[in-house]
Amino acid sequence: MSFLSVDNVHHSYFTPKSATNALKDINFEIQEGEFISLLGPSGCGKTTMLSILSGLIQPTEGSVLIDGAVPSSLTSSIGYMLQQDYLFPWKTIEENVLLGLKLNKQLTAKSRKTALNLLKEIGLAGVEKQYPRQLSGGMRQRAALVRTLAINPKILFLDEPFSALDYQTKLKLEDLVFETLKSYKKTAVLVTHDIGEAISMSDRILLFAAKPGRLYKTFLVPEELRAIRPFDVRSKEAYSVLFQEIWKELESLENHE
């Protein structure tokens, strides 16, 4: 049985005068521990799909199950990493990191120690008493990742979490997130516009087409690329081959709009 299943999902947005089909006939499955990317042109419904997967909105038709349960019943078991870090500026990094545990009534001496140890593992030793304004953008996103992982979520949803960072910081964080999620055997879904990011971090890439949003094609990332860190992936020939293949598919989608 799949860890996450999407069965015949349709979604429409309604206004008093019109209805817009955002998603149509979406079907796919994700195995536990897989890293999946949703890729596609603007307006293809990637973010809507992520909102449905996370239980933030209910699909007009169809169903989603995560580990046998509907997403809306798993709010305390779902982790998010977004483009903005959403750290509270008036709270210390330690207070921010422990916030999810506190809200979920999971804060114990053991869970606090685990979270603060992860902060050190991720390269943020000594910042516990500092405030977000004292950290760089990359450091803030690392802290946001620790806050997300602290609650030990069943699945993580990443909505363009590196897009606001400079390129060097982005590449470093890709490696860090990839290695951290693999070591904790986490299942993750990434929404991105970046073909290179999708290839370097994913096991599979789901390419969406627009108007209406639909699953157009699935790409399996070669095993040789999945076994190495994202930074090293970009130098491999298999990366270039897959990049060109996805690029051509995206071009054809945009030309047919």
Automatic annotation (TrEMBL):
CDD domains: ABC_NrtD_SsuB_transporters. The keyword ATP-binding applies. GO terms for molecular function: ATP binding; ATP hydrolysis activity. It comes from the Bacteria. SUPFAM superfamilies: P-loop containing nucleoside triphosphate hydrolases. Keywords: ATP-binding, Nucleotide-binding, Transport. It holds the Pfam family ABC_tran. SMART domains: AAA. The keyword tRNA processing does not apply. Residues 4-235 form the ABC transporter domain. InterPro entries: AAA+_ATPase, ABC_transporter-like_ATP-bd, ABC_transporter-like_CS, ABC_transporter_ATP-bind, P-loop_NTPase. This is Spermidine/putrescine ABC transporter ATP-binding protein. It comes from Heyndrickxia shackletonii.
